[in-house]
Design goal:
The complex is a heterodimer. Chain A is mainly β. Helix content of chain A is 0%, strand content 51%. Chain A has no helices and 13 strands. Chain B starts with a strand and ends with a strand. The relative contact order of chain B is 0.33. Classes of the chains: A mainly beta, B mainly beta. The A-B interface holds A 1, 40, 42, 44, 49-52, 55, 61, 93, 95, 97, 100-104, 106-107 and B 34, 36, 43-46, 49, 58-61, 94, 96, 98-105.
């Protein structure tokens, strides 16, 4: 299975500041035939199902605020929240869907300073 | 697409549970349904997936001998059955259509 490692495990950021979460895969998740990275980012709040933010590593899901962005290729990926809002407090997960066995990162808890 | 899962379950150790996930709206046979679980306060854990059209499945190695994932295309419903339940299987179980949307979750409690 492809191991997904997120960093940091937890993050405290001031309102209006930038938050950056990293995700590293144990092998490349770039499918060269279509040049797509098979990475999704989710936001999960307590008592809720995960919500898709980003897919194909950098494509924002419809309705997701544009302060959320994804970047990276191959094995290293980043989720950036440009100006942190109170409603962004949550746990964030990356997931690879490149292999036949999909895997998640361990999650990053984002809090407000 | 909307996914609606079956209701909460309470099971005894050693028994099995089957969770359903019904899709409504436009559904494509090219897609997959994944199953994920989350124990209280813990991380998301991937269980397995099924290709909607072919019925092909793949499961995480941890669950390979205990989980069966099926689908019924006539009712647009997917099923995840977990056998030989133990207390550590107590968790919220989610289905998702590919990476989105997700079902609301089904709480499975294993207790004697």
């Amino acid at each position: 299975d492809i191991v997904m490692t997120q960093s940091p495990d937890s993050l405290t950021v001031s309102l209006g500041e930038r938050a950056t979460i990293n995700c590293k895969s144990g092998q490349s998740v770039l499918y060269t035939s279509n040049n797509k990275n098979y990475i999704a980012w989710y936001q999960q709040k307590p008592g809720q199902a995960p919500k898709l933010l980003i897919y194909w590593a950098s494509t924002r899901e419809s309705g997701v605020p544009d302060r959320f962005s994804g970047s990276g290729s191959g094995t290293d990926f980043t989720l950036t929240i440009s100006t942190l809002q109170p409603e962004d407090v949550a746990v964030y997960y990356c997931q690879q869907y490149y292999s036949t066995s999909w895997t998640f990162g361990q999650g990053t808890t984002l809090e407000i300073k | 697409i909307q996914l609606v899962q079956s209701g909460p379950e309470v099971k005894k150790p050693g028994t099995s549970v089957r969770v359903s996930c019904k899709a409504s709206g436009f559904t494509s046979l090219d897609s997959v349904i994944q199953w994920v679980r989350q124990a209280r306060g813990q991380r998301l854990e991937w269980i397995g997936l099924i290709v909607v059209g072919s019925g092909d499945t793949n499961c995480a190695q941890k669950f390979q001998d205990r989980v069966t994932i099926t689908r019924d295309t006539s009712t647009s419903t997917a099923y995840m059955e977990l056998s030989s339940l133990r207390s550590e299987d107590t968790a919220m179980y989610f289905c998702a259509w590919g990476v989105a949307p997700w079902g609301q979750g089904t709480l499975v409690t294993v207790s004697s």
